[in-house]
C-alpha cells in the first residue's frame, strides 16, 4: 500500500487545500504516512505571501533531498502558491523535485502521478478555465467536528504589496447552493463548527443569484440545523459593512470574532498600498463592530517598513493599536514580492529600522493582549475542545466563541464537545480555566 505525506505552509486556505489533496490521494489508493521515511509521495503545499515563506520551502526541499537519494522512488511534489509563482524554476533549483502544480492544477494530481511514476517531470501552472468549486467527495478533513468550507477563491484587490491575485487568480465565488449542500452534509456527519473561507469573504457574490451577498449567505448557513458555530475569514476593511456588523449580532451562531487586517495605521501608506480605505474609515468600522457585538474579539495583520514609511507613519500604526486594543496582531516586516507594484518602489526603510519598529509593535501588542485576556478572569465561557493541551498532557485545549485558546484539566473524551469553563488565569496567548460541572 502506497502512502502520502502533505506538509502545509501558510494560511487556512492552504490547510483546507491539503485536506482536499489528502482526499484525492486516498481516493486512488494512497494512505497517510506517519513519517517522511514511510511516505511514497511527499507534497509541499506552499505559501509565497512573504519571501521568508518561500525560503522555508527550499530549506525543507534541501532536507528532503537526502531522503530522495536514499529512496529514489519517492515522489517529491511542490504545489500551491510558490509552485504557481516559480513553476519550472523550482526544478532548476531543486532538480530532484518530480512534480510542480499551481494553485488551480493541484487538484488534478491523480491523473499526473502515473506520468511521474514513468519518470516524467511534470510542471503545470496553467490558470485558464479554472473553477472555484473544489472536487466533491474528496476531502480528508483534519477534524471530525470543525470544518473549513471554501466560499470563494482568488482576489480582485491588487494591494500593491500582495502577490495573492497573481498566484491565486481573480476572485471567483462558489454558488450558494453548492456551499449549503456541503454545510448540510457536514451537519449530517456531526460537525459542529464551520469556517467560511475566502481571500476576501465579504465581497462574496453568488454567481447564480446576484441577490445573495455575504450577509445573505451567512443567514442561509445559519439556518442549517446541527451547526452550532460559524466563523469566517478573511474580511477586507473596504468591503466590511454596517450590515455585516449587525448580522454578527443578529445571528447567534455567528461567532463574536473578527479578523480585519488594517496593514498600516497611516492613511498615506494605506493609499500607497492600494487598500481602499483610510485610517479614519477603518476605525469607524471597528466602532460599528464594537457597538453591535460587545466583547467582540478583534485581530489584525500589520506590515512595518513599507517603502516610504516614516517615523510619523509608524506612530499612526501604533495609534491604531492603542485605539482598537486588538486581541491579536499578526505583524511582519515588509518584503518585496514579485509581480507587485510595490516591488517597483525603492525599499527605502533600512532593515534595522524595520526590525526596531516590529519589536516595538510586538512588545506593546503583547502588553495589550495580557491586559485584554486578564479582563476574562472570573468569567464563565463556552469552549469547543479541539485537542490535548500542548503544555500539559493531563489537560485539554479548545477555543471560545471569541477564538480565545483555553487550557483546562480534562480527558480526551472531551475532544469535540462544548464545555463550560471558568477562567482562572490569563497569559498573553491563552487562558487557563476550570471545568464547570
Residue windows where pLDDT falls under 50 for at least 5 positions: none
Strand content: 15-25%
Number of H/I helices:
13
User: Which architecture of the largest domain per CATH?
Assistant: Alpha-Beta Horseshoe
**What characterizes the major β-sheet?**
6 strands, parallel
CATH top level class name of the largest domain: Alpha Beta
Cross-sheet strand order for the largest sheet: 2-1-3-4-5-6
Indicate how many domains the architecture comprises. Answer: 3
Please, what is the CATH homologous superfamily of the largest domain? tm_1862 like domain
How does this structure look, described?
It is a single chain. The protein folds into three domains: 3-124, Rossmann fold (3-Layer(aba) Sandwich), CATH 3.40.50; 146-372, tm_1862 like domain (pyruvate-formate lyase- activating enzyme); 380-435, Nucleic acid-binding proteins (OB fold (Dihydrolipoamide Acetyltransferase, E2P)), CATH 2.40.50. It starts with a strand and ends with a strand. The mean pLDDT is 95. The chain has helices at 12-27, 51-70, 81-86, 88-93, 109-117, 164-168, 176-188, 214-222, 242-250, 267-272, 279-292, 311-324, 351-374, and strands at 3-8, 31-32, 41-46, 75-80, 99-101, 122-124, 146-150, 152-153, 172-173, 193-197, 229-233, 257-259, 297-304, 328-333, 380-388, 395-400, 405-409, 418-426, 431-435. By secondary structure, the chain is α/β, with parallel strands linked by helices.
